[in-house]
Design a protein that fits this description.
Helix content is 32%, strand content 21%. It has 15 helices and 19 strands. It has helices spanning 4-7, 33-42, 81-84, 102-117, 142-156, 164-176, 187-193, 195-201, 246-249, 257-271, 317-329, 344-350, 362-374, 409-418, 452-463; strands at 9-10, 17-23, 51-56, 59-67, 88-93, 130-133, 181-185, 209-216, 226-237, 277-287, 299-301, 307-309, 335-340, 356-359, 380-381, 399-400, 427-431, 435-436, 446-447. The strands form four sheets. An eight-stranded mixed β-sheet has the order 7-8-10-9-13-17-14-15, sandwiched between helices. The protein has 464 residues and is of the alpha/beta class. It is elongated. InterPro entries: Leucine_aapep/pepB (IPR011356), Macro_dom-like (IPR043472), Peptidase_M17_C (IPR000819), Peptidase_M17_N_1 (IPR048816). GO terms for molecular function: manganese ion binding; metalloaminopeptidase activity. This is Leucyl aminopeptidase.
Length: 464
């Protein structure tokens, strides 16, 4: 597990140059006459996101960075600093900002800097050429920064290096490092307890694994809220017999993005030692093609007792999740949240940046949406429209894994999952892209843990 603390942050640097963080409309006179004269000569505009590096006798002496007035909670505002500052060590100075906002801005800056400094490569690890001195007020951002890096690393790792067993092993190691009790299920035990998930993995030589982790915060008791998280971990998706096009397979290493996200959420909760009980289930599997693979028209049994007719072998994610959701409901959690790179239909509706949120509980949905807005990590709610539920009914089985209509694919996928959730359990399903098609500040191209900050903020609100 790579640690941004070792690669782009430092505890102290005696020769670090200063980045003066100034809110829009703030008093630049506090920077000193020399700085102010240089800025005026250069025509510097004090607009949010603007950065000026001020020269000195031995090169760049300091920098000025403008942020939005009265805005906190947006780490992406600082995401460009690692690539725009000169090489070397830099320290942040928030003295020009209102004292009440300095701690929150420090957290935003640390997280945003780490998000912007993230790079993935296979080979020799290199320290990032620009490092930030960790401000004491910004330490609370480290759990999110570390979880974000781990989630991105898992999504970006090629499938030949990260199959079901490797994903499960990495999750187990990260969870146990935070004191969780972790079980890895495989073979006959997995087949018996998660038959639908097992069918998805039957076509691959790399056998499926299920991760089941349990953890309790030091301040939690037997009656503390139980949060249950479930993630789709399809390490590579060929589409099965309904095979994807070559272009459609290019990014299918990211099809375990839901598992990476839910693991990241769990690790943040554990690192923060939240006073709650936590369960995490990850279905780690590969959807491949062989004489053992499931076929269109097959009827599968599930943990919940429902039979499922396979209408399309490329709609495997919901088959991975359904057994895990059924098991999670057996403990009657206060909240049940799952995440998956589930449908292209969600991307058609909302594009790559907005995970689709479905929920059977308005209060839970609003808590997640409000938290996502606060954390500048947006989600968008789509309906569990009951009128489409009958589209999943089948004559030869209880339910089909795809609708018999060529519309509302994200909704019908969520309705399929809802069949395996107890009505009394407050449940939310997040359909995410888990990928950035191009680089923007704080979001380099490649795998990403979209909704991590929003969900983590919602968990904080639940206990407060």
């Amino acid at each position: 597990m790579r640690d941004p603390m070792k690669l782009c942050l430092t505890e102290a640097a005696p020769n670090a140059r200063i980045v003066h963080v100034v809110p829009e409309g703030g008093d630049l006179e506090t920077l000193g006459r020399g700085h102010l004269a240089y800025l005026r000569e250069r025509g510097f505009k004090a607009r949010p996101g603007c950065l000026a590096q001020v020269p000195g006798p031995q090169g760049i002496a300091s920098a000025i960075f403008i942020v939005k007035k009265d805005e906190t909670g947006n780490p992406l505002a600082f995401g460009a600093l690692p690539t725009r500052l000169g090489q070397g060590d830099w320290a942040l100075d928030f003295s020009a900002c209102p004292s009440a906002q300095r701690a929150a801005l420090a957290e935003d800056a640390v997280l945003g800097f780490c998000m912007g400094a993230y790079r993935f490569r296979i080979g020799t690890e290199h320290e990032f050429p620009v490092r930030l001195v960790l401000p004491e007020e910004g330490r609370n951002a480290l759990p999110l920064a570390r979880a974000n890096w781990l989630g991105r690393d898992l999504i970006n790792t090629p499938a030949n290096l990260l199959g079901p067993s490797e994903l499960a092993a990495q999750a187990k190691a990260a969870l146990e490092a935070h004191g969780a009790m972790v079980d890895l299920l495989s073979g006959a035990s997995l087949q018996a307890n998660y038959p639908c998930l097992a069918a998805v993995g039957a076509g691959s030589d790399r056998a499926p694994r299920v991760v089941v982790a349990r953890w309790q915060g030091s301040g939690a008791g037997a009656n503390s809220p139980l949060i249950s998280l479930v993630g789709k971990g399809v390490c590579f998706d060929t589409g099965g017999y309904d095979i994807k096009s070559s272009a459609g397979m290019l990014r299918m290493k990211k099809d375990m993005g839901g598992a990476a996200l839910m693991l990241a959420v769990a690790l943040v909760a554990m690192a923060r030692d939240l006073p709650l009980r936590l369960e995490l289930r990850l279905g780690c599997v590969e959807n491949s093609i062989s004489g053992h693979a499931m076929r269109p028209g097959d009827v599968l049994k599930t943990r919940a007792g429902l039979s499922v007719e396979i209408g399309n072998t490329d709609a495997e994610g919901r088959l991975v999740l359904c057994d895990l959701l059924a098991e999670a409901c057996e403990a009657d959690p206060a909240w049940l949240i799952d995440a998956a790179t589930l449908t292209g239909a969600a991307r058609v509706a909302l594009g790559p940046d907005l995970p689709a949120l479905f929920s059977n509980d308005d209060e839970l949905a609003q808590t997640l949406l409000d938290a996502a807005k606060t954390a500048h990590d947006a989600m968008w709610r789509l309906p569990l429209w009951y009128g489409y539920d009958a589209w999943l009914d089948r004559k030869t089985a209880d339910i089909g894994n795809v609708s018999d209509k060529p519309m509302a694919g994200a909704i019908t996928a969520a309705l399929f999952l809802q069949r395996f959730v107890k009505p009394q359990v407050k449940w939310a399903h997040i359909d995410t892209y888990a990928w950035n098609d191009s680089s923007t500040p704080g979001r380099p191209e490649g795998g990403d843990t979209l909704a991590l900050r929003g969900i983590s903020t919602a968990l904080l609100r639940m206990i407060n």
